[in-house]
Write a structure and sequence with these properties.
8-stranded mixed beta sheet, two-stranded antiparallel sheet, 419 residues, 12 strands, alpha/beta
């Protein structure tokens, strides 16, 4: 099976061609990336995120990239992934993730018949010689655990249904522009680009599931007799995949940055529990590899530009978000939208110089407009029946909001053109 390292020489970068590379980060990363993408779509003139020249997605970014290449704009995906108020399209993690019963049954069948005696013997050994026996007992116990504890197949089926609707496709070979979803072959450790020649017959939804299978939580996903896990095990955003398609500009989004809690009054990672410490460790490693990759691109693709959008290092709102809380996901998406607008305004001169050779420009007038709310707030104490009630009126309200937003943006752009 060929992998991403087997590509030939990269084509020369083409001015005016734009690619998008989306990193992972689970449901939290998806909420952040969607908020940021909405800010980019509104504030960069000439940018249509559903009409780019190449898309690359890793983990949660794979789901978003699959939607964009199928013509689903980021504002619509906010309704689907974040708003969670449409039973036909919502991606609520509490509903889409369930225990991996098949893996637990497989582990139980593989356990020795005298499991009780084995455990008892291990306890006896620990009582006699606590040190070496303890680690021996732990090692034997770990061998009995399943390959993954969460089943992501409901998310795969949900994505497959969405991509099978009229005007969309779940087939890599039928997308309007190249879509690449990167996963890791767990038996070789190599990255594999699903969607590339030889790897384009697998459904997009299946590849997205493989790319987002976090080791330890999800079992490896079987595709073509091989088994795959999270595509971020090798790289974070895999911007090189888009660059190797010859695009002149890659917009890269990475929601996973290590948190710097040294400022006064900031919450400390070291006092926030083992899961937070592990998250900080993973983010630190990911960000370090990304910095190395960006430096390498300047050598391997000197004619191309890569623009990265990510949270600030002291962004506690992003780092400490509870992904299973609906209000937290909405708050994070809104926060990403506002903070990305602020980032664009602060860097507009620098970014404009990079974007204009590719036919894009930062619209400062749009950024200076008072930002309309992206995500509708829901009171935490609202009964579920009230939140769900009036779905038709709610959808109509969102359509009117989107129309009003579009008219305001169009007015700002006309004023900018006259100036």
């Amino acid at each position: 099976m060929a992998d991403a390292s087997a590509r030939g020489p990269a084509p020369r970068s083409r001015r005016g061609s734009v690619g998008l590379a989306l990193a992972g980060g689970g449901f939290m990363g998806a909420a952040y990336e969607l908020g940021a993408l909405c800010a980019l779509a509104e504030s960069i003139d000439g940018l249509d995120l559903t009409r780019l020249d190449a898309y690359v997605g890793v983990s949660a970014g794979a789901f978003i990239a699959a939607g964009l290449v199928n013509g689903v704009p980021p504002h619509r995906m906010v309704r689907m992934f974040v708003e969670d108020d449409d039973p036909g399209t919502d991606f609520d993690p509490a509903l889409l993730l369930r225990p991996a019963f098949r893996e637990w049954r497989r582990a139980a069948r593989a356990a020795p018949s005298g499991l009780g005696a084995t455990v008892g013997a291990g306890i006896d050994e620990v009582a006699v010689g606590p040190q070496a026996a303890l680690w021996g007992a732990i090692e034997r116990g770990l061998r009995l655990l399943p390959n993954g504890v969460i089943d992501g197949s409901p998310a795969e089926r949900k994505l497959a249904r969405l991509l099978s609707q009229h005007g969309r496709t779940n087939d890599f070979r039928r997308t309007r522009a190249p879509l690449r979803i990167v996963a890791t072959d767990i038996d070789s450790g190599d990255p594999v680009e699903f969607g590339s020649p030889g790897h384009d017959r697998v459904p997009i939804s299946r590849a997205a599931l493989a790319s987002s299978a976090v080791p330890g939580l999800f079992a490896p996903v079987a595709i073509g007799g091989r088994h795959f896990l999270d595509g971020a095990l090798n790289k974070t955003v895999h911007a090189s995949v888009a660059l190797d398609h010859g695009v002149g500009l890659v917009l890269a989004l990475n929601p996973l940055v290590p948190f710097d809690g040294h400022r006064a009054g900031a919450r400390q990672v070291s006092r926030s529990g083992i899961t937070t410490v592990m998250a900080q460790t993973i983010r630190t490693a990911i960000r370090s590899r990304m910095s190395v990759g960006l430096a390498k691109y300047r050598v391997t693709h000197p004619d191309a530009d890569v623009v990265v959008f990510e949270p600030q290092r002291d962004d506690a709102d992003t780092f400490f978000t509870n992904i299973f809380s609906l209000s937290s996901r909405r708050r994070l998406c809104e926060h990403a939208y506002v903070s990305t607008r602020a980032d664009l305004l602060a860097r507009h001169a620098e970014l404009d110089a990079m974007l204009r050779p590719h036919g894009l420009s930062v619209n400062v007038d749009v950024l200076r407009m008072p930002a309309r709310r992206l995500v509708r707030a829901v009171r935490a104490d609202s009964p579920l029946r009230l939140v769900r009630a009036g779905a038709t009126l709610g959808r109509l309200g969102r359509v009117l909001d989107d129309l009003e937003r579009a008219l305001e943006l169009a007015g700002a752009r006309r004023a900018d053109a006259r100036a």
